[in-house]
């Protein structure tokens, strides 16, 4: 099932001189797995929706992906089997860079429920912390507003992603979280290079799967590098 | 200047069945740099003393090293020149594993004042957090007491390491912090292997120099991987 | 005295595709006690209004009940006599399930002022905590909005329920708190079953009257099961 | 392996008029499981030692039991198989009351690692909270000091219970935690009866296995009955 | 100088059935002192405006009074002389009850700057705490909204009351704070009587001047009756 | 039953120049009530022991009194009848000043369990707060140490005062709390007069029974005079 | 490049009697340095924009100045060379008073990146704390609203000031921060004089460059004058 | 009245190699004022004792001075007249440097009660914060222990300094606080010079009287230089 959603509303009147992002996004809903013949290219934006934030309790429900072309692929997983070889192949593919915003959570979820180690990865939250030193607001909504000029709705963020049928509002919300990560990454990479922090960011991305594994194994509340 | 210090007092009467660590340690004081002909072997315990905990304010004063044979080499550095090529060579030597307890601080100090990247490293504090899950006490004093059976004195921990002449109490304290790290590492490696966490610990050690660089570059108060 | 209140306004424009709940509710006001011949069926939603939240100080003023048919029965109690045998009979009836939202408070109030033990009970707040793991918002307003699609007004929540004459706003507010609990319970039961937590929820409901008694007897600030 | 430990030292000089508890305890160490022919009677004190406090990370290592006759049986479990049918039978035996101090933790550990539901249970910490209203100190050490007149050492509380060989200090510590629970329960039962709280305590004990299950299933940080 | 201000706007649309308080208030501005021939009757509402909240630093600037007839008398004091015998006479008059909202502050200010002990007094904040147990909102704005049905503006609360010329907004704000205290007191007295707390409230009012003196003498941060 | 206890040990070696308080105290234990013919004079030190600190849960168990002559009268009350007319007469006698340390608690207990209003009263804790401005330590132990030169033991403070038989340690502890209040009051009165705060202290003492009543009626957690 | 910005919108309808500040401001953008022939007079308002708030990490990007005539000069600096002799001359000129709001930050930035000590200075935040004792809101937005009657927008406060091209919104925001400081200072000086605090304020301004140097040298988190 | 006190006990066994400070101090007690003919030289250590820490409530009682020769002059002031011209002359003498530890408090007390501005001053607490960056312990006891090798007793710190007769313990305590400040200053000056912070420290000392005046005038809780 695929459909075209309304264009994003550009809601900040102070930024009227910018060019509005007018293209329609297309949302593709896949039940159980990605299609086997779908090629999302070398850089894929990824996000997921779950029953909650606790790894040892809350199931993985939905995974969203986008190649950065304005389309979003929303995969509704069948739990507890999680039989989705195509999705797992993309996540584990060493030649495909996965773009996340706060990937720590998703990567741990994927390892826990899908049994795959997600590598290589890029995290726009970490990149934002290293590049956007002029603010302490690094949520997806803030980052996308400033760097992509798009206002995301978060109304469906906490909803029942384990329901038998997902509502259009849920699907649109899920899709929107991956649509802009490519643009955001481009902007952040420019800033990181300008400030001389590209290498530092890459080293953090490389450690991210380890950090996710620490979460899964019981150190989710600890900063393992902290003094106390 | 070298001398023999008194044997460590084993102060816990409840542990009377353990074998007391009786050997005398020998402390070697070096002014300015390590001797050029000193070979400390492939695994060197390292610690340092500074004017304080702030990288951008407090100078590095003393570096202590031990090969694990009961001798400690205490190097009193000449600031602000820090002309100590032999010491720097050991720290940067990719074939010499440097053992620290909370190496994050020392590594950042070495990068900041000596201009060297310290690699490869092992941190007994991180190892303790991963292995000794039954406690939240991972200070050097706690770890050495339990794993090496030795009671360290911390009386000189906060003293004037920038003084023209260091007191015998300061030198003994400085030396004692590196004497037992080899034993502690052996015990922790056994526990990590038993619990299946060797690989996880290694991945954390590998990231430690990056974490130290983040400290130096202005993220010392932030857990870069945290959600907020 | 009975009257028809206005239909609930469905105030979330983003959910325009849902079917609006159009039926009028009818509010029945009873002075002192329920009518003796009123049969509310095997599952009764119950709520109460008081002079405040302190059991040993604040009187019980109003009890509201609904059989789930859209009608609400609001009983204005005569304090301090609380001579209301019909109401007490319903609360203590072992064959009538009482639905509450945060029943812990009401059950304690009923034991304290009416001298009845309310059993069996169902608490939509506890059920929500066990089923809606994707959120930490389990207030009645939040639960009813998501699960019944109705926006409750809380404007009269803190008002003088001990007044000689209750205002229409107070009566409407009181009635609205019991009208939707049947629908909410249905939704939560479906979710609990889906996640395999039906038995766990039932065990918590069974303990609820004990928890209320602990409140009355002086452990209102303590989690009796906590470590500290 | 069994041996006699030293009598407990009664260390409070202010209580010199009390009768010192002089009997020697005998500690029996069992590898892997309880002996099949050991009958511990209808009321068994139980405690356990683990690799830490996190259910989803830390293994169960040791279970201690006592029939209240001054002997302690310390079972060192073989993980991860946990093949100990005799121990499991005692824990699950509906005709044997298990005495714990803060049983919530042990019961969850047993369900998680041994796969048994421990019932019926009695918890001296809960009983102490309900009876000893004159204090907020309900740790085992405090309760045993006041009600059994014995001073427990807690020096080995945080030690490596997963070690291949447990030290005599560890075994003595483990044994001491179950030796006095029968006496403590007697004293607490007298006080609960005097204050009219026997029934209330029993209702709390009955809920304890549910509370432990909530811990295991992901609500370990929540008071499920709390308002927020 | 006197003038008529606009009628209060009744801004809560939900309360449309209530009767709007339409009468105009008249504000009388007095420079330096009350007129000598003004008789405000046996019950006078009083409030004051100052340079801040610290008794030992911030001057008293304005005192407002009302007899409850809809008129407000605003006295702009000349500091540091505070030569205002008529005002002082009213405050100290044992036959005139002074109505305050949080009188503790004003009474201390009057003692500090005017040298008078204000007695007898009534405090609508204390009365509200004792009567309106169903809320924890006892600010003047909250109390006046609920009990007098009037919405007060607080926009000028923090403004420069020591200015040479007070703005119309400041004068209107100052006046509005005393206009409704008589009505509020009537409502609160009814509630206190209904709940049997009239005597308790009176005892608190009687202590209020002592509490104000404790503030002045250096115990402003302490609850003198607290355990710690 | 009466007996002589050991003289108080003066345990501060730094104060060796002070004269040791050598007189023996005599403790009189009365079951149920004071003797009818006991005259304790116009100023009586009073303290009590309870099952805990919650008025609505914890029973009053023991009341201690002293006329200041070195004797202590310990009354063990029979609950729940509390049939003790002689004790109640002393407490309610308007011609007998009752000395307390933190009398707020005892006065509320007496009103709650004995049904008497205790007046007039003097509180050494309040007096200490007003006179000893050079410290924030106003516990009985601190006040008695400094002003009476006696070191009180607090070891029995939290013990089972509801037990059938009180231990000698409990009785000695209970007695010691009233033995020194007369001396302490004399010292504090001298200091209050020197600092000009006698009247302020008296006004606080007069309010104390009201403050106790507020505790009983449900405002135990609130400072009724606070802004928030 | 210079242009005229829109007049400031006066957005507070309650202040309709004040005269609207209608004059257009003119913004002059200078790349790299101030023009050599620009004379800003004896009192210059100064503000700056940076990559963040950490002196040892975040670069200085923009400095804004105004002589108080309604024009703003925005200097976009070339980092890391910071070759701007004209700007440095103004900052270091002992005959030019620099007006800041929270100058502590800017002065430290100038010393760190430009190598100049900025003297003499005036800080409207410190002056506001000393004069406006009736409020705790001393942000630039609050101060300018009350004292200049102008509503500043803070929307661009956290934006990428290191970008190659600054947006018109950024330039307008930067300019607006210096336009009103002369008016604000006049108002504050009047209030300081009225309250007798002119000398105290001047002494604080004189210390401000020292306070900035303490920030740079590592005491940025400490109040050097605090007890702890 | 003068007498010789016992030599200071050197209580740290670890420092046995240091030379014990054996000289006897002589304490001179002066009633009301310093003798007119006493010349304490160009650098005088000063401390004071008060009725407490609140400037607007607690009286100044005792001032201690020492020229650094081992003698201490303790002046017991007559309040409230504070007629002590000789003492005031020393404090205000621009040619006599006054050494304090946390002089902020004493300077404010002197201005408040004696009406003198104390200048010039040196504060060993501020100097310690700037020099001893390796610790956060800057209390007099800590500083004197490390830098003078003397262990001060703090037992009389909180005692009744307003008493008619001061005890020998109080006098000895008061005297000891000024005996070692000259030595401490010498050590700190050496460290400040070594670290290049002499000028910074002097600028802080110069501001100290202003900081004290801010305390007196109502900003005692505020860091006037803080952002918030």
UniProtKB/TrEMBL annotation, chains A, B, C, D, E, F, G, H:
One of its GO terms (biological process) is nucleobase-containing compound metabolic process. Residues 25-193 form the 3'-5' exonuclease domain. One of its GO terms (molecular function) is 3'-5' exonuclease activity. Pfam families: DNA_pol_A_exo1. Coiled coil: none annotated. This is Ribonuclease D related protein. It comes from Brevundimonas abyssalis TAR-001. The lineage of its organism: Bacteria, Pseudomonadati, Pseudomonadota, Alphaproteobacteria, Caulobacterales.
């Amino acid at each position: 099932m695929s459909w075209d959603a309304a264009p994003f509303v550009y809601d900040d009147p102070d930024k009227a001189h910018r060019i509005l992002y007018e293209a329609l996004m297309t949302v593709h809903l896949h039940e159980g797995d990605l299609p086997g013949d779908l090629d999302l290219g070398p850089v894929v934006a990824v996000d997921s929706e779950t029953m909650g934030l606790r790894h040892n309790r809350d199931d993985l429900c939905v995974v969203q992906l986008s190649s950065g072309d304005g389309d979003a692929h929303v995969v509704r997983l069948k739990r507890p089997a999680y039989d989705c070889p195509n999705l797992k192949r993309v996540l584990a593919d060493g030649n495909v860079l996965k773009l996340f915003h706060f990937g720590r959570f998703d990567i741990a979820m994927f390892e826990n429920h899908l049994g795959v180690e997600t590598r290589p990865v890029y995290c726009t939250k970490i990149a934002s912390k290293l590049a956007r030193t002029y603010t302490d607001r690094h949520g997806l909504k803030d980052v996308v507003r400033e760097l992509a000029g798009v206002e995301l709705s978060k109304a469906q963020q906490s909803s029942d992603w384990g329901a038998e049928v997902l509502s259009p509002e849920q699907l649109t919300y899920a899709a929107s979280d991956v649509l802009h990560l490519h643009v955001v990454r481009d902007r952040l990479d420019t800033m990181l290079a300008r400030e001389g922090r590209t290498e530092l960011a890459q080293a953090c991305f490389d450690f991210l799967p380890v950090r996710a594994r620490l979460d899964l194994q019981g150190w989710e509340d600890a900063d393992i590098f902290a003094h106390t």
